[in-house]
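Practice problem 4.
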């Protein structure tokens, strides 16, 4: 069961001795290379024109080499304590359908132990996952920084253990999360729990060394500093996450506290980190039930922590948005990036709604290719364009659409909304054959077979960590999928995604603006419609600088059904009249771009004509939450709330409850 990169077969002693005969001091070449040297080089290599010289090996050196060579520094390693001795497979019950759920062995204050003996792969392997829940790990930005730093220093300290364990077929990882510290071990089961003991002993007795602290604090500071250079889509996803979940510290929050990070403070943090814990543990693979119980007892003894009460746990909760449309505006922290990004979330009900989540999965699958084809391939809005979904445990789920583009975020948002309005027709016209192909694709994805114990453990651990404990989720989703038809997709779309029909339409758009794009002020957002801001941004993108007030006045004069070509020429006429040198090469280039058939200005103008005189349909819900004026938000003519201070807006939101288990949690013992 041990493996290497090459499989050797057969043993030829004569051949090996022949090869070994060449390994002698009389058959050696010694190469000395240096950047700076003071010796005379009398030869030149013909291919690379490198100077060198060739000398015989000094006689004294040859005598030393032929003599007895002993170097204390060179020795065989100590015996590897992690090499397994017992590879016997405990479960011999073949031909029985694998259990879909692990067994809850214990659930008391401070401990939750799940166990599943391998009944699928029948290999001498194990997988142990351990969540050491501790509120301190993420209670503040400073705590989060200290936790990260602790993990970096700890992993460095464990390097020697890591090497021996990997050689013996074991793998482990230790990481911090918002809830606590996760320990994960996978590999041959025989010495796996011995490795777990060593990891926990190191964790609990850790002392911070000055050299390690200096190296890794500098590395972490550099990492946080470099976060500002991330791509716009990474920043916008961070902002969207910040506006959707209760526990999250941004890199700016962490950087603001970094001056408080010292070796002494880190040591105090480590010493107090596990004073109170709740252990969530899952033992899987070639173990017996007794070994799992003994492993849990070992963990409890090594941690020596006071039990964390159930009500004191820091469980991630979702933030709940009232019906309406909310748009967050932020600037890129890096000035050189020309890209902006838009991340639109349209909320589609509670994550616990089993029928709703399958419908969202289907809609997400159906929309994926058309969305990419329209906005990326045809409109060339941006290289990073995709659609997906977001499911917040205990909260709401949403259809997500993201585009990173050099164009104005307002224009990109309007193109996303325009696509969604048109896509409803594609859903309604979908053939039964087409629907069945999507449903079958989703079913195949759900039924994908587990490849190994690591995958099976990961799936079950996700169900435990979600708080729902829905181990039969795949079977449930497939059963729901079999009841759905084309009409259900359209009904779902109209109930949540279509703002003209959704009774409680809720949308959050996180946008991040390149410093190369003029961002509208609060007064301009409150006064001018999105169509005018989008058109202004497209003109600016094509090199035509015209005041937003002038563009807005032009848009205000448009009427539905106006000839778009004539309207474009009037707009270009306004632009040429506003510049000092209308005949310059720069102006001619801008005019050429705007007249091009694929011009964004043409598209923005078409949308402005389409929306002339019409306000956005919001079903009267966008006006809820009028107190948002008091946090600096503004109400646009389109009925949307636009805000810049994410933390202030976040503070106005309600929190979801924790997930409710889908099954009774009754321990065996």
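Answer key:
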């Amino acid at each position: 069961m041990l493996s290497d990169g090459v499989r050797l077969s057969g043993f030829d002693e004569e051949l090996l001795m022949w090869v070994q005969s060449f390994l002698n001091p009389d058959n050696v070449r010694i190469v000395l290379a240096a950047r700076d040297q003071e010796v005379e080089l009398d030869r030149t290599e013909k291919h690379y024109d490198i100077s060198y010289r060739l000398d015989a090996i000094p006689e004294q050196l040859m005598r030393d080499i032929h003599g007895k060579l002993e170097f204390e520094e060179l020795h065989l390693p100590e015996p590897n304590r992690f090499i397994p001795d017992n590879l016997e497979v405990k479960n011999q019950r073949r031909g029985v359908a694998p259990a879909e759920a692990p067994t809850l062995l214990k659930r008391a204050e401070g401990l939750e132990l799940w166990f599943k003996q391998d009944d699928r792969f029948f290999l001498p392997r194990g997988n142990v996952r351990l969540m050491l829940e501790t509120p301190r790990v993420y209670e503040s930005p400073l705590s989060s920084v200290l936790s990260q730093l602790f993990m970096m220093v700890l992993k460095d300290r464990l390097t020697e253990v890591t090497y021996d364990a990997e050689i013996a077929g074991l793998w482990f990882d230790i990481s911090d999360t918002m809830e606590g510290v996760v320990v994960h071990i996978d590999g041959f089961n025989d010495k796996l729990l011995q490795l777990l003991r060593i990891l926990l002993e190191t964790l609990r007795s850790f002392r911070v060394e000055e050299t390690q602290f200096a190296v890794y604090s500098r590395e972490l500071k550099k990492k946080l500093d470099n976060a500002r250079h991330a791509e716009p889509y990474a920043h916008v996803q961070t902002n969207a996450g910040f506006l959707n979940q209760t526990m999250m510290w941004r890199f700016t929050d962490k950087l603001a506290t970094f001056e408080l990070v010292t070796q002494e403070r880190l040591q105090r943090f480590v010493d107090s980190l596990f004073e109170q814990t709740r252990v969530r543990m899952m033992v899987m693979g070639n173990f017996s039930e007794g070994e799992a119980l003994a492993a849990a007892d070992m963990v409890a003894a090594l941690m020596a922590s006071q039990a964390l009460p159930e009500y004191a746990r820091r469980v991630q909760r979702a933030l709940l948005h009232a019906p309406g449309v909310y748009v967050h505006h932020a600037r890129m922290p890096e000035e050189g990036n020309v890209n902006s990004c838009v991340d639109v979330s349209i909320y589609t009900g509670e994550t616990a709604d089993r029928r709703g989540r399958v419908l969202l999965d289907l809609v997400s699958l159906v929309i994926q290719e058309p969305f990419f084809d329209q906005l990326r391939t045809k409109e060339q809005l941006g290289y990073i364009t995709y659609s997906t979904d977001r499911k917040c445990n205990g909260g709401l789920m949403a259809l997500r659409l993201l585009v990173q583009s050099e164009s104005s975020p307002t224009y990109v948002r309007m193109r996303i909304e325009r696509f969604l309005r048109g896509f409803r027709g594609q859903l309604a016209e979908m053939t039964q054959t087409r629907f069945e192909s999507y449903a079958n694709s989703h079913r195949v994805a759900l039924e994908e077979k587990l490849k190994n114990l690591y995958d099976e453990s990961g799936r079950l651990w996700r169900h435990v960590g979600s708080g729902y404990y829905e181990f039969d989720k795949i079977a449930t989703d497939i059963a729901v999928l079999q009841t759905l038809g084309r009409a259900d997709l359209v009904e779902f779309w109209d109930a949540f995604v279509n703002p003209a029909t959704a009774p409680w339409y809720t949308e959050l758009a996180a946008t991040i603006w390149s410093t190369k794009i003029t961002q509208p002020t609060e007064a301009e957002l409150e006064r001018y419609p999105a169509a005018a801001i989008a058109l202004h941004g497209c003109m600016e993108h094509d090199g035509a600088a015209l005041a937003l007030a002038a563009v807005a006045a032009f848009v205000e004069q448009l009427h539905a059904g106006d000839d778009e070509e004539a309207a474009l020429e009037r707009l270009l006429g306004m632009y040429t009249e506003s510049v000092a040198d209308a005949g310059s090469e720069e102006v001619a280039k801008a005019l050429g771009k705007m007249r091009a058939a694929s011009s964004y200005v043409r598209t923005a103008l078409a949308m402005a004509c389409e929306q002339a005189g019409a306000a956005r349909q919001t079903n009267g819900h966008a006006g809820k939450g009028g107190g948002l004026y008091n946090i600096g938000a503004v109400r646009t003519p389109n009925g949307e709330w636009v805000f810049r201070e994410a933390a202030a807006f976040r503070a106005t939101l309600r929190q979801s409850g924790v997930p409710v288990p889908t099954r009774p949690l009754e321990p065996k013992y």
